Amino acid sequence: MEAEISFLFRWLHVVSGVMWIGLLWYFNFVQIPTMPKIPDELKPAVGKHIAPEALFWFRWGAMATLITGLLLAMFSGYLIDALTLSAASGYLGLGIGMWFGIIMWFNVWFIIWPNQKIALGIVDANADAKPAAARKAMLFSRTNTMLSIPMLYCMVSGQNPAAWFL
Amino acid sequence: MKNPLESLPMTIVLGLVITVAVVVIVGAVS
Q1: Do A149 and B18 touch (CB under 8 A)?
Q2: Domain containing A95: what range?
Q3: What percentage of chain A carries pLDDT values higher than 70?
Q4: In this complex, which of A33, A146, A166 lies closest to B15 when CB atoms are compared?
Q5: Do B3 and A165 lie within an 8 Å CB cutoff?
Q6: ipTM, 2 decimals?
Q7: Domain extent at residue B26
Q8: What are phi and psi for residue A123, nearest 5 degrees?
Q9: pLDDT (tens digit, 9 = 90+) per residue, A102-123?
Q10: Interchain contact, B5 vs A143, CB within 8 Å
């Protein structure tokens, strides 16, 4: 039964991870580079409608990915070995990936989302605060895009133990 | 100096550099 539970949570982890990282890459590969090219009168369509909706699925995708990932590791029996970066257990690579993911989840919930709320006018803030909040959210979104590359490498490395690298 | 994370290509390069660093570290201690 443990194998079936692990399979279930691995599937849910991948599904929610696609939602999270898919939207992260949408923001960084599509929305952020395109915004300066959009005519000013059309920008509210993105800022007031598309971005808040995308951010909803983005942050809850991050939450679901974290929870299902931790449950997957727990039911599979390597949660502690991976989080303590135990080289002897063979879960060092996966553990590094998990910590990258945890840092990214923290960035989403405690830096990107609070600053996006200011930048998009979802919470009240003075006009001077908006550009600074938008820049901070953008840079941490870029940080997560940077970390997503080694994080995904570490995540899939566990499925390929016979490869000479990891 | 401009923050390298303002550039998307630089962000990807840095991500790849970290990936290589992880491979080296894991390979060295495993």
Answers
A1: yes
A2: 2-157
A3: 96
A4: A146
A5: no
A6: 0.96
A7: 1-30
A8: -120, 155
A9: 999 999 999 999 999 999 999 9
A10: yes
